[in-house]
């Protein structure tokens, strides 16, 4: 997983990775 944001962001990143690239699909949730 990519730890670029807060620890809470890691949980969201894992869910986004299942759907696909978080940066390409839902970059708003990463912020």
Give a structural overview.
The chain has 31 residues and is mostly helical. The model has no long low-confidence stretch (mean pLDDT 62). It contains three helices and no strands. Helices cover 68% and strands 0% of the residues. The longest helix is centred in the middle third of the chain and has 13 residues, at 7-19. It is globular and about 20 Å long. The chain has one domain (1-31).
Task: Give the helix tally.
Answer: 3
> Helix amount, in percent?
55-70%
Give the amount of beta strand, in percent.
under 5%
Low-confidence blocks of residues: none
Region (Disordered): 1-31
Q: What topology does this entry show?
A:
Elements: H1 7-19, H2 22-25, H3 27-30
Quick synopsis:
Residues 1-31 are annotated as: Disordered. This protein has helices spanning 7-19, 22-25, 27-30.
Brief descriptors of the model:
single chain; 31 residues; mainly alpha
